[in-house]
């Protein structure tokens, strides 16, 4: 059982501010992002607790990447109420390794202090690539490149790990392996994780909490209290539900109330 | 059936051998044939010596000039001209390319001037440079430098501007400072383009050298050619042309070697 998010805590935390922890690592209030006349993110509130694993679903163009870039500190926030931790790391859909640096130097990129190579090596061993330290990135397979990107993110020991559709380009089998890897790394290092994905199954398999973004707002969120690995029982129903939100049915204005799936948890 | 396959394979094998023979032997066939015809034409008197010396005569002259030290000493003079001109031109091109590539203000200041400079054919400046710098070494080196600036500038500048913004984003997301971003991401990604510019600069420098050396030189390959022209020594002229060609090949080899080392991460090179 995921100890931090006990069921009772959930019951009492129902409502708008549903975070049982006093100090969220990420805190957005009324965040808005526009590109010219288009409002992509519209008055969004978001709290992420330390160590929480969140999946962000949404149709293409709904602003998931835009939100993630804001959390990554890649876009200016211009005086808006945005709090993100200093130590954060991103894994993008394409691994974005520097092709002119061997793998271990990619992982070590920007690291300060001594023993940089050792730390890089340890991180690569953790993702199962200890044997490819000196390989050139262009010789890696897609899955290997993504694992290097994971190592590069984790070697910084971030408080917030942001993943933007990191496994979308991988085949199903590799994707499952990567899920296991991400979960074990998450258990070992306990960063707060926000993973953007198109894949409802992926969201259900990984997350403590699933958010659905549409028209610049979070239109639904589901907290999953069932331990990972025992989720097949609830996944069918939850999947339907999330898909219906994603399907673009009109849910009216504003935020859909938070609904824990209590029955499934029993 | 089996026999047929074996037979086929045998054929294919022969075909491959023939093909590689055609590639390696065949490439030399036509130049050698041309040389032979040329030699024959000279010996039979079809090609008068004042029009074009025979290959055998050219080789004899080459050996003679090498032994007397005439060729090495003049080659050294020409080589020094290219080297100094390139050093100045490439250096300027690097500096201007960095300034224009890395800052908006720099771009505004530098790029219009460089575009204007581009429209002026370098060799058309020869008379002006002679008026300014006289007929010594300075105008020759200045012409070479002037010609070498632009290819380096343009390729470095466009290389820097062509940096993959996604890689830059990744570097930013890991908290790299502006200078670290430039050092780890921008400059390495501009390197392939810069090397192309360098190769252009080298070949254009040799081209300009040939013309610049015609300016009243008292040493160098151009001086040798001018002298030979006055005495109708076509053999010496051909020897000098060969040396120019070798200079060009050497320059190309140099850049290739640098490329192979600097761009070792590229798949085409990695695969080898
Ligand atoms: N720099 C930009 N300038 C203008 N419009 C932009 C910019 N970046 C994103 N947009 C627009 O914002 C909207 C949301 O884009 P975003 O990349 O966040 O979508 P997404 O949810 O990540 O989609 P996908 O699932 O396809 O990746 C899109 O309509 C996009 O065209
Ligand atoms: Mg996206």
Automatic annotation (TrEMBL), chain A:
Domain ABC transporter as annotated: residue spans: 26-240
Q: What is the lineage of its organism?
A: Bacteria, Pseudomonadati, Pseudomonadota, Alphaproteobacteria, Sphingomonadales
Family stated for the protein in its record: Belongs to the ABC transporter superfamily.
Q: What is this protein called?
A: Aliphatic sulfonates import ATP-binding protein SsuB 2
GO MF entries: ATP binding; ATP hydrolysis activity
Q: Which InterPro entries match?
A: AAA+_ATPase, ABC_transporter-like_ATP-bd, ABC_transporter-like_CS, ABC_transporter_ATP-bind, P-loop_NTPase
Query: What's the domain of life for this entry?
Result: Bacteria
**PANTHER family, A to Z:** ALIPHATIC SULFONATES IMPORT ATP-BINDING PROTEIN SSUB (PTHR42788:SF17), TAURINE IMPORT ATP-BINDING PROTEIN-RELATED (PTHR42788)
User: What organism does this protein naturally occur in?
Assistant: Sphingobium fuliginis (strain ATCC 27551)
What are the alphabetically sorted keywords of the record? Answer: ATP-binding, Cell membrane, Membrane, Nucleotide-binding, Translocase, Transport
Tell me which SUPFAM superfamilies the record gives.
P-loop containing nucleoside triphosphate hydrolases
Asked whether the UniProt record includes Nucleotide-binding among its keywords, one would answer yes
What would be the name of the gene that encodes this protein?
A: ssuB2
UniProtKB/TrEMBL annotation, chain B:
Q: How is this protein positioned relative to the membrane?
A: Multi-pass membrane protein
What SUPFAM superfamilies does this protein map onto? MetI-like
Q: Please give the start and end residues of each transmembrane region.
A: 75-99, 119-135, 141-160, 204-224, 236-255
Example GO biological process term? alkanesulfonate transmembrane transport
Database matches in InterPro entries: MetI-like, MetI-like_sf
Name the domain of life this protein comes from: Bacteria
Pfam families, per database record: BPD_transp_1
- What GO terms fall under cellular component here? plasma membrane
Q: From the Swiss-Prot or TrEMBL record, state where the protein is found.
A: Cell membrane
Keyword field contains Cell membrane: yes
Could you tell me which residue ranges the ABC transmembrane type-1 domain spans?
A: 71-255
Q: Does the keyword Heme apply?
A: no
Q: For this UniProt record, give its keywords in alphabetical order, as a comma-separated list.
A: Cell membrane, Membrane, Transmembrane, Transmembrane helix, Transport
Q: What function does the entry list?
A: Probably part of an ABC transporter complex. Probably responsible for the translocation of the substrate across the membrane.
**Family the entry assigns:** Belongs to the binding-protein-dependent transport system permease family.
Protein name as it appears in the record: Alkanesulfonate transport system permease protein
């Amino acid at each position: 059982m995921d100890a931090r998010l006990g069921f009772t805590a959930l019951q009492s935390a129902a409502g708008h501010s549903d975070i049982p922890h006093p100090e969220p690592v990420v805190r957005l209030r009324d965040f808005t992002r526009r590109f010219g006349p288009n409002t992509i993110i519209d008055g969004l509130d978001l709290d992420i607790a330390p160590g929480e694993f969140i999946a962000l679903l949404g149709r293409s163009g709904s602003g998931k990447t835009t939100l993630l870039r804001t959390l990554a500190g890649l876009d200016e926030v211009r005086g808006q109420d945005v709090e993100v931790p200093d130590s954060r790391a991103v894994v993008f859909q394409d691994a974005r390794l520097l092709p002119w640096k061997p793998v271990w130097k990619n992982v070590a990129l920007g690291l300060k202090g001594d023993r940089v190579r050792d730390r890089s090596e340890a991180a690569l061993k953790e993702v199962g690539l200890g044997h490819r330290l000196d390989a050139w990135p262009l010789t890696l397979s897609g899955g290997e490149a993504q694992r290097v990107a994971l190592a590069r993110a984790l070697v910084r020991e971030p408080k917030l790990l942001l993943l933007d559709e990191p496994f979308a380009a991988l085949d199903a089998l590799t994707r499952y392996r990567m899920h296991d890897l991400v979960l074990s790394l998450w258990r070992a290092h306990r960063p707060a994780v926000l993973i953007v994905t198109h894949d409802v199954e992926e969201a259900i398999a990984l997350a403590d909490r699933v958010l659905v973004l549409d028209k610049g707002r979070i239109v639904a969120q589901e907290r999953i209290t069932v331990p990972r690995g025992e989720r097949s029982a609830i996944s069918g129903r939850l999947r339907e539900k999330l898909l219906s939100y994603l399907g673009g049915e009109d849910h009216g204005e504003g935020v859909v109330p938070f609904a824990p799936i209590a029955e499934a948890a029993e | 059936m089996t026999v047929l396959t074996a037979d086929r394979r045998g054929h294919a094998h022969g075909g491959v051998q023939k093909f590689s023979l055609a590639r390696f032997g065949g490439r030399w066939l036509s130049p050698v044939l041309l040389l032979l015809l040329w030699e024959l034409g000279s010996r039979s008197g079809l090609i008068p010596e004042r029009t074009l010396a025979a290959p055998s005569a050219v080789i004899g002259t080459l050996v003679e000039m090498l032994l007397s030290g005439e060729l090495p000493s003049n080659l050294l003079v020409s080589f020094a001209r290219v080297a100094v001109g390139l050093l100045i031109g490439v250096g300027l091109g690097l500096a201007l390319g960095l300034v224009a590539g890395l800052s908006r203000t720099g771009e505004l200041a530098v790029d219009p001037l460089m575009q204007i400079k581009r429209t002026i054919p370098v060799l058309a400046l020869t008379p002006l440079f002679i008026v300014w710098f006289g007929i010594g070494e300075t105008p020759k080196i200045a012409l070479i430098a002037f010609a070498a600036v632009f290819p380096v500038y343009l390729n470095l500048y466009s290389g820097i501007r062509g940096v993959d913004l996604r890689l830059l984003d990744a570097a930013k997301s890991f908290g790299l400072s502006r200078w670290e971003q430039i050092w780890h991401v921008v400059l390495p990604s501009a390197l392939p383009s810069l090397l192309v510019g360098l190769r252009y600069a080298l070949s254009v420098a040799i081209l300009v050298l040939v013309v610049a050396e015609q300016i009243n030189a008292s040493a160098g390959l151009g001086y040798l050619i001018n002298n030979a022209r006055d005495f109708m020594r076509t053999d010496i002229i051909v020897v000098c042309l060969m040396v120019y060609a070798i200079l060009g090949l050497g320059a190309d080899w140099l850049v290739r070697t640098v490329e192979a080392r600097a761009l070792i991460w590229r798949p085409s090179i990695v695969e080898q």
